[in-house]
Amino acid sequence: MVRWTMYPLLCSLLVGCVTVKETSNNKEFNSIEASEARIALGLRYLETGQWQRARENLEQALKYAPKYYRAQNAMAYYFQKVDEKEAAEDMYKKALQDSPKNGDTLNNYGVFLCGEQRYDEAITAFLKAIEQPDYYLTSASYENAALCSLNNGDKQLALRYFEKALSHDPYRPKSMLQLAQMKIEFQNYKDARAMLFKFNKRYGYKADSLWLLIQLENQAGRLTQADKYADLLKEQFPDSQQYQKYLANEY
């Protein structure tokens, strides 16, 4: 269930095709707009596995705007994708040298650090991103800090950061499910059940939420309820990994 949130890279940039128009008229040329167009192309190529074209466009984006944080983040993301870890870290450090208070870069660097099992450094980066006055993706960085804490085996700290994420975004689905799972592990069935009911009311039944409800009710000794959720899982998600786990009694 662990997935990271990196901003701002893919979501707003991978919509439709981008035509790159360059002009020799300096009065009309906008280096940031040109860089954005190349970033969009580069990330689209990256997502389709066209590594060479991706790099060409991202390098061009940096040529247009060498200190533009979105171009630097995109280039660092490319290096992560192709497993060039040293180059990725160098790019993040360069971006932070140019814009030390950029929350997006701090968040993405934290994701990179956690992937390298440098957990304390990663969480420091996430919390520093949150401190920045112009950074508004607070819930995402708290969620990332929670996921990183889980990877580090610190469940109590993870619990605290998931709760922080939800205090800023009460319906953040990943944090809702992760927090419910942790409440089940801590045998806090009442709060876990309330969280999952809240999730299902907002998003409808999902394979993950039904699977957690099956585990919850089995552990709570409410086997009739567990069977009810198992029937829903079978009916709505018969091909899901969660249903296969149920059939294998992996709960």
Can you describe what's shown?
Pfam families: TPR_12, TPR_16. This protein is mostly helical and 251 residues long. It folds into 3 domains: 32-84, no CATH class; 101-170, Serine Threonine Protein Phosphatase 5, Tetratricopeptide repeat (Alpha Horseshoe); 177-250, Serine Threonine Protein Phosphatase 5, Tetratricopeptide repeat. It has helices at 31-47, 51-64, 69-81, 85-98, 103-115, 119-131, 138-151, 155-168, 173-185, 189-203, 207-219, 223-236, 241-247. Helix 3 runs antiparallel to helix 4, helix 4 runs antiparallel to helix 5 (103-115) and helix 8 runs antiparallel to helix 9 (173-185). The protein is elongated, with a radius of gyration of 21 Å.
Q: Shape from CA axes?
A: elongated
Helicity level, as a percent range? 55-70%
The total count of helices amounts to 13
Low-confidence stretches: 7-24
| CATH topology term of the largest domain | Serine Threonine Protein Phosphatase 5, Tetratricopeptide repeat
Strand element count: 0
Helices and strands, in order, run as HHHHHHHHHHHHH
**Share of residues in strands:** under 5%
The major beta sheet can be summarized as: none
**Computed Rg:** 21 Å
CATH superfamily of the largest domain: Tetratricopeptide repeat domain
> How many structural domains does the protein architecture include?
3
Structural class call reads mainly alpha
TPR repeats: 35-68, 69-102, 139-172
Organism: Photobacterium lipolyticum
Pfam family, one: TPR_12
InterPro entries: Pilus_4_PilW, TMTC_O-mannosyl-trnsfr, TPR-like_helical_dom_sf, TPR_rpt
